[in-house]
Design brief:
Low-confidence stretches: 1-51, 734-738
CATH class of one domain: Alpha Beta
CATH superfamily of one domain: PapC, N-terminal domain
Distance between the termini: 79 Å
Oligomer: single chain
Number of strands: 55
Mean pLDDT: 85
Structural class: mainly beta
Largest sheet: 24 strands, antiparallel, barrel
């Protein structure tokens, strides 16, 4: 019985505390209230009212966290030793019990958590919790602004990219470079080649044919047909007919694969945070009080200085600087890149359409970001009696020490040998240093060696680039190169200097010296100038091999929206004179050019036509050269302006279509139409679309534009006067009388009605004042909405 009485008393006490709190009165037990512990700076409790050690009081307190009200009223337990809280309270506040060291507990004393301070106000029944920065989850800020990516889509279609060139005169010749693509949801089948349609050497040479498919979810691509194996810095690419499976980071244009810098800080009060990279502001945001982290600090390649500046409402600011080094060749920690290719090596590429090796070959490469400072590499290949394998690494030497790279590879099979490479690169705002050396033994071989392309025995390079500020920029480079079987090596030293002269003018000077053959040297100087946005001129003069050479050229590029362009050039090289003139016209359906060339005693004239033909959505359109992604805009309305990312591309043709040729694959591209040019009796559901094409494919951007049946009515009542403004109007069409109004009457009895039929009954007003009228709809002329009336409204019959 005693236990039941105690339990009842406890329940009543909890109810009383809750009622007192609801009335704004502090819940104080009969034995008194304990004060806040030593963690509080403002003792609001009465020390004379501390309850006995055995007394426990349950309080329901309004909680604030780090100075911000949470809106949460949570239960706390008060004893003579202080306040305790349940772990569930922490979860309700969005805090991690693991970080506070109380995971696995049901209840804990507030004083037992290092870094947690609190202040209890018994009169207001509130508790203020303050966490040290080490216990708080930093606010995450992303310093990069990227366009949204997408999985990509493709509508079925066919594409032909072409470059047609015809040479006039006695040696008339017509040739065409072409690319054919068939695309759809299952991937892209593409083939390239060159056809000589007329003249000597009339034939067709096929270059590459392959089918490709990609999965953006896993960042993997598969290609079957003619493929090119990716290469590392110390390996060679190979052409083969077969298949390739690889990681494809191009499927996520918003993803940066190299390690990005991040900077952290803490704001005492809500503040403005600015990020500066090499003295230029890159990012700005508002942050609440507490710790924050700025991730993905972009805009830096090489060494630099990043500075974070916080400013509070009173203008007080704190700046923190940190040296950074970013190298785009490294992979971020945990990121892997791979490529596996297998098939028959391609032979006589560009000469024969179908010639492959008789034995199979396989090659594979792997890169892995072991950490943000270390990237590991591996490569292996086999075939044609050759086995080759090696490993390498790139290591960042601290935050400002550059990147050291090295690799060691060996070969076996018909011949055995080794290859070693070592390099170092350091890039800073004022200078850059690049050193690279690769040495191969006489017996070292790879798959390219088996096809008649021996590995270079010595390949050394060294370069230094200097930023001289107002004096321009200068570079010094050295190349040491020797092929197997050659008796002498090539050793070249080069020096270059350039400077902007202002007003669109630019001056560059360069020279080289062959250190093995002293007589082989050269020097040139170039002055170029921009005259407006599309016109430029440049002049070059110099000497090489003891002979002079010079040229003078001027050109004007066609406007992106279409129009004329031209170019002219006069040059002399080693006593041989060349003069050339060209005119171009760029339209929405392609580009036309005419060129005349006079070289020595020979003159030739040629005509060129380049563009695309696209078969899609039941039609064939002519367009400019189509890039890796495109869209077919379909509106059904002619002469409608179309924009891509707010840049005017052109106007729809007579069939209401326009091809947008250059879109970024797997990225959201905004295409819009100007609805202001629509006739008055037409409307569009949306004026902008976001399209995400697959690589090499096209998507249909369809804008639903419809002609609607509407009219402006002028309605007079039974008394012959305009119906009062605000009177509801409803199309009958058999709808119940209680249906919502379709429109209301404006001033002077004017009312606008949509969804009209050929014959319409219109109900005007409500109740006893209601009247009805009959409307026969006749479309307006030249796309205008008709105006009908005045119409006299007859009283509604019973």
């Amino acid at each position: 019985m005693a236990g039941r009485a105690d339990a009842a008393e406890t329940q009543l006490h909890r109810l009383g505390a809750a009622l007192l709190f609801a009335c704004g009165v502090a819940a104080v037990p009969a034995a008194g209230a304990a004060p806040a512990n030593g963690h509080t700076s403002d003792q609001l409790s009465d020390l004379s009212t501390i309850p006995p050690a055995a007394a426990v009081t349950e309080l329901y307190l309004e909680v604030s966290l780090n100075g911000d009200k949470t809106g949460l009223v949570a239960p706390f337990r008060q004893t003579a030793k202080g306040l305790s809280s349940s772990v569930q309270n922490l979860r309700d506040l969005g805090l991690d019990p693991q970080a506070l060291g109380v995971a696995g507990m049901d209840e804990f004393a507030l004083d037992a958590v290092p870094g947690l301070t609190w202040k209890f106000d018994p009169a207001a029944q509130t508790i203020a919790l303050v966490l040290a920065d080490a216990l708080r989850k930093p606010v995450q800020l992303n310093a990069r602004t990227v366009r949204p990516s997408g999985s990509g889509s493709a509508d079925p279609g066919l594409l032909l990219n072409y470059d047609l060139v015809g040479q006039l005169g006695a040696n008339a010749r017509v040739a065409a470079l072409n690319e054919v693509r068939v695309f759809g949801p299952l991937g892209v089948l593409a083939s390239t080649g060159n056809a000589v349609l007329k003249g000597r050497g009339q034939r067709y040479i096929r270059y590459d044919t392959s089918w490709s498919w990609s999965d953006p979810a896993t960042l993997q691509s598969m290609e079957v047909g003619d493929v090119v194996s990716p290469s590392l810095n110390w390996t060679r690419s190979l052409r083969m007919g077969g298949l390739q499976w690889r990681r494809n980071f191009d499927l996520r244009p918003d993803l940066l694969t190299y390690p990005l810098a991040s900077m952290g800080g803490s704001a005492v009060v809500p503040s403005s945070v600015s990020l500066y990279v090499n003295g230029m502001e890159q990012y700005r945001a508002e942050v609440p009080g507490g710790p924050f982290v700025i991730d993905q600090v972009a805009g830096l390649n090489g060494a630099g200085q990043a500075t974070v500046v916080t400013r509070d409402a009173l203008g007080r600011q704190v700046a923190t600087s940190l040296p950074l080094y970013v190298d785009t060749r490294l992979l971020a920690k945990g990121l892997s890149d791979f490529a596996l290719s297998a098939g028959m090596l391609r032979r006589d590429y560009g000469i024969r359409s179908f010639r492959y090796a008789g034995s199979p070959a396989v090659t594979g490469s792997l890169r892995h970001g072991l950490s943000d400072a270390v990237t590991l590499e591996a490569h292996a290949e086999a075939g044609a009696g050759v086995v080759n394998g090696g490993a390498g690494a790139l290591v960042r030497l601290g935050e400002a020490g550059g990147v050291l790279s090295g690799a060691l590879a060996g070969s076996g099979g018909a011949t055995r040998g080794w290859q070693a490479s070592l390099g170092y690169q350091y890039i800073a705002p004022r200078f850059a240093l690049d050193l690279q050396s690769t040495r191969a033994g006489a017996g070292y071989a790879d798959l390219g060696t088996a096809e008649g392309a021996p590995v270079v025995g010595v390949n050394d390079r060294a370069s230094i680039n200097l930023n001289l500020s107002r004096a321009g920029s200068a570079s010094l480079s050295f190349v040491h190169y020797r092929t197997p079987g050659s008796r002498s090596a090539t050793r070249l030293a080069a020096l270059a200097w350039s400077r902007s002269l202002g007003g669109g003018a630019f001056l560059g000077v360069s020279g080289f010296q062959d250190l093995a053959q002293r007589e082989n040297r050269g020097f040139s100087a170039t002055l170029s100038m921009s005259l407006g946005e599309r016109t430029s001129v440049n002049a070059t003069g110099g000497r090489q091999g003891g002979l002079g050479q010079n040229s003078l050229a001027a050109s004007r590029a066609p406007d992106f929206g279409g129009g004329w362009g031209w170019g002219a050039q006069k040059s002399t090289s080693q006593g041989f004179d060349v003069a050339q003139a060209q005119v171009q016209y760029l339209g929405s359906g392609g580009q036309f050019s005419a060129t005349t060339l006079h070289a020595g005693n020979t003159s030739t004239t040629s005509l060129g036509l380049s563009g695309s033909l696209v078969a899609m959505d039941g039609t064939v359109l002519a367009a400019r050269h189509v890039g890796r992604g495109f869209a077919l805009v379909s509106t059904g309305v002619a002469d409608l302006p179309v924009t891509h990312e707010n840049r005017l591309l052109g106007r729809t043709g007579r069939d209401g279509r326009l091809l947008v040729p250059d879109l970024m694959p797997y990225t959201s591209n905004r295409i819009a139409i100007d609805a202001a040019n629509l006739p008055a009796d037409m409307r569009v559901e949306r004026t902008a679309l976001a399209v995400v094409p697959m690589a090499g494919a096209g998507v249909l951007a369809g804008f639903r534009i419809e002609r609607y049946r509407a009219a402006t009515l002028i309605v007079h009542g039974p008394d012959g006067k305009p119906v009062a403004a605000g009177t509801p109007v409803r199309l009958a069409h058999g709808a119940p009388a209680a249906a919502a109004a379709d429109s209301v009457v404006g001033y002077d009895g004017v009312v606008f009605l949509d969804n009209l039929k050929d014959s319409n009954e219109v109900l005007v007003g409500e109740g006893a004042a209601a009247c009805t009228l009959h409307v026969d709809y006749q479309p307006g002329t030249a796309g205008q909405l008709p105006e009908i009336g005045p119409l006299h409204c007859a009283p509604l019959k019973e």
